[in-house]
Design a protein that fits this description.
By secondary structure, this protein is an all-alpha fold. It is built from 14 helices and 4 strands. 47% of the residues lie in helices and 3% in strands.
Length: 334
């Protein structure tokens, strides 16, 4: 009986273990730190050097790269599909209206880092554009005096990029908390992850056209959104007149726009969130406690942000025959 019971136990144990292994996504299982240790051991320092050079040319490198990473991962996963350029009349992800405002400096950062990597003979065509984007994003955050962290690597580049795939996949400035939570949950991200990632708005800029409705035409009884700090609203009206040139842009964070910090949350406490989707994080009682904690402790926010970025980097990862390593980040391999 003892032998039979032991045998039965082992069979059940093996079955449970097999089921657990099946449940873990293979794409996530492939990702690991130092993925390129055997084929391109210095890849991270090569990328960092190229990104630092670009950063010294323009600070826009920081928000542009960070936003590019986010827009890539939320549409078809983190596979650099957003970098594919239009050809032969076919519209790709970057042609969608939600992606037209992506700054060229983000694309340029990845392209230059890819060129630097491929200039090393042992590394040539060994590192994916998707992984270079992940490394570059980590590096710009650090260069803006934000947290530095280890990244998981091992992604392949996607084989598809369609403008139609973008529709309904990216959060909008007018979103409320329910809409934000639903969109992030669809990508395996929690409310805390969403709040942490929203703080990427602590750097960068927005075009005035994205907020005109909030400062002039909010409602019939309240032309200005009442959740906006009145002094801040007047300042925004001064920078963004009704007939503003659509090319005019303003800082997302009016206090420390070139530093990746927790000022974003302090601004929300003062009614100085630029978008409705920002300010709602404080006006909604469900998310307000998190905003207060992270406004008080930058280090606590940094840890949550790194955790959220790591989870975001696992979304829709391509492995095996579902992807490849592009020789040119903006063109599918022929």
């Amino acid at each position: 009986m003892g032998g039979t019971s032991l045998g039965s136990f082992l069979m059940v144990f093996v079955l449970v273990l097999t089921l657990l292994l099946v449940v873990v996504p293979m794409s996530e299982a492939q990702l690991r730190q130092n993925f390129y240790a055997d084929v391109c051991p210095n890849v991270e320092s090569i990328v960092r050097t190229a990104v630092t050079k670009k950063f010294r040319q323009t600070f826009v490198t920081v928000p542009a790269t960070l936003r590019l990473f986010f827009h890539d991962c939320f549409v078809q996963g983190c596979d650099a599909s957003v970098m594919i350029g239009s050809s032969g009349g076919n519209q790709v992800e970057k042609d969608h209206p939600d992606n037209l405002s992506l700054a060229g400096d983000g694309f340029d950062t990845v392209i230059k880092a890819k060129a630097a990597v491929d200039a090393v003979p042992e590394c040539r065509n060994k590192v994916s554009c998707a992984d270079i984007l992940v490394m570059a994003t980590r590096d710009v955050i650090s260069l803006a005096r934000g947290p530095s962290y280890a990244v998981e690597l091992g992604r392949k580049d996607g084989l598809v990029s369609r403008v139609s795939d973008v529709e309904g996949k990216l959060p909008q400035p007018s979103f409320n908390l329910n809409q934000l939570n639903a969109m992030f949950a669809a990508n395996g991200l929690s409310q805390a992850d969403m709040i942490a990632l929203s703080a990427a708005h602590t750097v960068g800029f927005s075009h005035c056209t994205k907020l005109l409705n909030r400062i002039y035409n909010f409602s019939r009884t309240n032309p200005v959104d009442p959740t906006l700090n009145a002094t801040y609203a007047a300042k925004l009206q001064g920078m963004c007149p009704r007939d503003v040139d659509p090319r005019i842009a303003i800082d997302m964070d009016p206090n420390t726009p070139t530093r990746f910090d927790n000022m974003y949350f302090k601004n929300l406490q003062q009614g100085m969130g630029l978008f409705t989707s920002d300010q709602v994080l404080f006006t909604d009682a469900r998310s307000r406690p998190t905003v207060k904690i992270w406004a008080h402790s930058g280090q606590t926010f940094y840890k949550a942000f790194v955790d959220a970025m790591t989870k975001l980097g696992r979304v829709g990862v391509k492995t095996g025959s579902n992807g490849n390593i592009r020789t040119d980040c903006s063109v599918f391999n022929s």
